TrEMBL record, chain A:
Annotated InterPro entries: AAA+_ATPase, ABC_branched_ATPase_LivF/BraG, ABC_transporter-like_ATP-bd, ABC_transporter-like_CS, BCAA_Transport_ATP-bd_LivF, P-loop_NTPase
Residue span(s) of domain ABC transporter: 2-234
CDD domains associated with the record: ABC_TM1139_LivF_branched (cd03224)
Keyword ATP-binding tagged: yes
Protein name in UniProt: High-affinity branched-chain amino acid transport ATP-binding protein BraG
Gene name per UniProt: braG
From TrEMBL, chain B:
TM regions (residue ranges): 6-29, 41-58, 92-115, 135-160, 190-215, 227-252, 264-285
GO molecular function: L-isoleucine transmembrane transporter activity; L-leucine transmembrane transporter activity; L-phenylalanine transmembrane transporter activity; L-valine transmembrane transporter activity
Bilayer topology annotation: Multi-pass membrane protein
InterPro entries linked to this entry: ABC_transp_permease (IPR001851), BCAA_transport_permease (IPR052157)
Organism of origin: Herbinix hemicellulosilytica
Protein name (Swiss-Prot/TrEMBL): Putative membrane protein
Length: 234, 293
């Protein structure tokens, strides 16, 4: 459903992404793993239109996303949970969730999705009227995921969802990602926590300084010697 | 009784500063720029009302309504032509452009209306109120200005807090990229902000010129700067801040003119700005903005 072909992205004169190609099939969880600065976040931001690519194509259902206005991409079924959560701290939990449904117009359907999100994240329901800025890191991550789900996405891009969370919360977040995927949403996951990412992914790509150096079945990559050494700390 | 009169005049002037300051603070919050041409939009509003009312003899209500429409379009046009192309430019370039637009508007008005100041007829039909056997007299302008400004502020607050567009505005002001990810059209949101700020400025213009009567091409500059001071005073980017800052500033200005020195009124206003910025650089209600490194 999503195919990235020969993507090249520059920050000024520095080339951050040096010709990356990968694809995501419907229903999959795809992990992009790699060290800090490998270009994982840049790839997601380019897909969402926040950064313009110098070359290459990002095909989504046959359409090149680069020709679409960035604010119209979410309405096509692509939601992005950004690195660092980036919830709107001056809005309440409820208002943040409504922001997630910004491009949707049917009030009843929005209400229905809201109920689903509250079922998935009961904590958000408890804190419905609390300012998002006062939530803990874990709760903010839940809110960022809930907010993304409010757009009823076909594919969800997740950028470092486990960053800065305690081991128990990391466990919880990955369980949630799995269950989001089970209910029919494709997931493109960017993670530094390679072990966790590979444990839930179908396939994975290993990114090193703007290049994909390895790709394949997640289970196989987990047993790959060089992956073990570089990313799994074994 | 004298004190009460001065206080009411101060609140009245201050509430006009407040609603003008809303334009500065909203634009700053959302586009992170100071629109120095905002004051001159007030002047344009004044001339529109003057022309329609005094020259063409139109009804004051329709004149103000027309001024609101013209100012809204003017604000949006300024944004579209002068500021939008500079979205990614350094803030200094935007600042200089804003000053350029300000001079452009002033000189266009000079070209059309000449330098001589016009006598602006009040648009407010309300008669002055005399209380306590005439010891306290409240002008019709004050009677209308204070409640009207309060209604505008409450209305705007309600719009921003409760409407979808308003939420979009808060989202853009806090995190543009995250707002885009939600599907917010940032350019449209900025245009709406300019439109609202300019429409409110037109009302401010009608109220201010009705109370002070003098209208010339540079008439917008001083109230514009003072409203800007009010916005900074209250905490730039904060809407309640603009309201509090504006009213405080108006009261301080009128009281210092009355009790300290007529000539030093403006000096005292700016002195207060300097002191506030030294003591609390973010203003009364301003929040510290944490830049992501």
């Amino acid at each position: 459903m999503l195919e990235v072909k020969n993507l090249q992205v520059y920050y000024g004169v520095i080339q951050a992404i040096k010709g990356v190609s990968f694809r995501v099939e419907e229903g999959e969880i795809i992990a992009l793993i790699g060290a800090n600065g490998a270009g994982k976040t840049t790839i997601l931001q380019t897909i969402s239109g926040l950064i313009a690519a110098k070359q290459g194509e990002i095909l989504y259902g046959g359409v090149d996303l680069q020709k679409i206005h960035p604010h119209k991409i979410v309405a096509m079924g692509i939601a992005h949970v950004p690195e660092g959560r980036r919830v709107f701290s001056q809005l309440t939990v409820y208002e943040n969730l409504l922001m997630g449904a910004y491009t949707r117009t049917n009030k009843d359907e929005i209400e229905e999705t809201l109920e689903q999100v509250f079922t998935r994240f009961p904590r958000l329901k408890e804190r419905k009227n609390q300012m998002a800025g006062t939530l803990s890191g874990g709760e903010q991550q839940m809110l960022a995921m809930g907010r993304a789900l409010m757009s009823k996405p076909k594919i969800i891009l997740m950028d470092e969802p486990s960053m800065g969370l305690s081991p128990i919360l990391v466990e919880e977040v990955f369980d949630i990602i799995k269950s989001i995927n089970k209910s029919g949403t494709t997931v493109l996951l960017v993670e530094q926590n390679a072990k966790k990412a590979l444990s839930i992914a179908n396939r994975a790509y290993v990114l090193e300084t703007g290049n994909i150096v390895l790709e394949g079945d997640a289970k196989e990559l987990m047993n790959n010697e060089s992956v073990k050494k570089a990313y799994l700390g074994e | 009784m004298n004190f009460l009169t001065h206080l009411l005049n101060g609140i009245s002037l201050g509430s006009v500063y407040s609603i003008i300051a809303l334009g500065y603070t909203m634009v700053y919050g959302i586009a992170k720029m100071i629109n120095f041409a905002h004051g001159d939009v007030i002047m344009v509003g004044g001339f529109i009302i003057f022309t329609l009312m005094s020259t063409l003899g139109l009804n004051p209500f329709f004149s103000v309504l027309a001024a609101m429409i013209v100012c809204t379009l003017l604000g949006m046009t300024i944004e579209r032509i002068a500021y939008k192309p500079l979205r990614k430019a350094p803030s200094l370039a935007v600042l200089i452009t804003a000053i350029g637009v300000s001079y452009l508007l002033q000189n266009l008005a000079l070209l059309i209306y000449g330098a001589e100041s016009k006598s602006f007829t009040s648009v407010i039909p309300v008669k002055a109120l005399s209380l306590f056997d005439g010891r306290l007299s409240i002008s019709g302008e004050t009677l209308v200005t204070i409640p009207l400004c309060i209604v505008i502020m409450i209305g705007l607050n309600f719009f921003i807090k409760k409407s979808k567009t308003g939420r979009g505005m808060i989202a853009v002001s806090e995190d543009k990229e995250a707002a885009v990810l939600m599907g917010v059209n940032v350019n449209k949101t900025i245009a709406i902000t300019f439109a609202i700020g300019s429409a409110i400025a037109a009302i401010g213009s009608a109220l201010m010129f009705s109370a002070y009567h003098n209208l010339s091409p540079t008439s917008g500059a001083m109230p514009g700067i003072k409203a800007f001071v009010a916005a900074v005073f209250g905490g730039i980017g904060s809407i309640p801040g603009a309201m509090i800052g504006g009213i405080l500033l108006g009261v301080i200005e009128i009281l210092s003119r009355a009790y300290i020195s007529t000539q030093l009124g403006d000096a005292i206003v700016f002195l207060i700005l300097i002191v506030v910025l030294l003591v609390k650089p973010t203003g009364i209600l301003g929040r510290k903005i944490q830049e992501k490194v």
